[in-house]
Amino acid sequence: MASPPPPIGGEDLAFPASAVDESFPAFLVARDGNSVVCGVSMLVLDDLPPGEVVIEVDWSAVNFKDAMVTRPGNRVARTSPLVPGVDLVGRVVASVDPSIAIGADVIAHGYDLGVARHGGFARYARVPSGWVVPLPIGLSARHAAALGTAGFTAALSLRRLEEHGLTPGAGPVLVTGASGGVGGMAVALCASRGYDVVASTGRLAERQYLLGLGASEVIGRDELIIDPERTLGPERWAGAIDCVGGATLSAVLRSLRYGGAVAASGLTGGSSFESTVYPFIVRNASLLGIDTVQTPIDERTAVWSEMAATFPTERIDSLIEFFPTERIDSLIEGEVDLDGLPAVLESILAGQVRGRMLVRPGRWRPPEARYGTTGEGRPPSTGPLQQEKSSRIA
Questions:
Q1: Which of 188, 241, 309, 345 is deepest in the core (most CB within 10 A)?
Q2: What is the pLDDT confidence band of residue 374, given thresholds at 50, 70 and 90?
Q3: Is the entire prediction scored with pTM above 0.70?
């Protein structure tokens, strides 16, 4: 698989000074000894990593990986300080690549964004031109952000299963971790393509939500394990999209139908799993790894075009989480600004957020603009991650 093109030097690329605000807000995560400090900081263009394209970020979205980089001792963040945000959608404000026009609406996600270089939780991002996907016709910027890495992962998973031979008439398709971002996207996408989707979740209270996305049946994660004393379980699934890993992936493998495959992309249930060789040598099962970080740009662009053409847009809004407004003052329905991120990140780590939470970096205003110099009306901090300027996580 081809590697993404390396960014080329930053200081020798002359961007017009007027293209970017003199300073702009970013949600910054920094290591401080054994702790991690998170909060909104003001950056300038020179703080951004090198690249040929500067994007004004209209939308980002919160992913599990974004939450992981806020944990002390995590192995996800590869630099400090770091602006998280593995997704971003916005408008090109400066470009030295003639193939990417100023004013173009674009998408960038994966590669090193939000992990080894500053990502989408800032008003501006600078990226290599080889990472930029044009916003497909027919897809709004907001819907593209709602799809984001989660939707892309679901679409790439289904693409791999169909390349393996899966068709709508082959039998039920299982989606694990269905209440999460990738899982919900997979349920909606597979159902829209005519598949009989069985959604597995550890939160059965989300049953109506999942049925509304198109699932024909909703089951608890414990229902995946049948006849545990046997080497192989009954043949149940023509295919599966596993967003969980761990014991769940083990259970899926032992219950695939003959010739079936599971596309695995998640590890919220554990990074290791146990299996015998029997699913592979007795039932001709396949385990398909789904990586969305290093996906070549040509396939990345093609998948986004497919999503724009086939994803049920009427269901995208159903996937945008409506977070409890009493927890975050800056919340606007399923959207937060930079100050709203800490509580959302905390809740994602706790498994309390379904669907997608969108981020609008450009909506952030400094505290004095929101509350005045006296601070009257400023909400009190309700947890270690919700301080106005920064938070220390030990």
A1: 241
A2: low
A3: yes
